[in-house]
Write a structure and sequence with these properties.
Length: 106
């Protein structure tokens, strides 16, 4: 049996305001869930995919990522110009069209 805390709600008879006996703030997510979400992001999963998979709102994952990023040291300045560049998932074709007008008509 799960031990759950029960809060009793009270209503003031004069003003109608509601009260509870004990307020307990939300517990938050476990460190294990946080690590799983961040690992999924590092492995290429998008924020909304993580939300669907883990049940954690995407803005929460973004917040966790920002927290981790603030703890990283600054990158040292680099004056070296790399001799090789890299582009991912980008293809271009440069050439001439075979037709000069729309729908292949001249």
């Amino acid at each position: 049996m799960v031990n759950e805390e029960v809060n009793f709600h009270h209503i003031c008879v004069n003003c109608g305001r509601q009260f509870i006996d004990v307020y307990s703030p939300p517990k938050g997510y476990s460190d294990e869930i946080k690590q799983e979400c961040l690992r999924s992001y590092v492995n290429g999963m998008g924020f909304r995919a993580i939300e669907r998979d883990k049940g954690v709102h995407h803005t929460t994952v973004i917040y966790w990522l920002k927290q981790i990023g603030e703890k990283l040291p600054d990158v040292p300045p680099s004056d070296d110009i790399p001799s090789v560049g890299e582009l991912d998932e980008l293809q271009t074709f440069i050439g001439s069209k075979k037709t000069k007008f729309g729908c292949g008509q001249q």
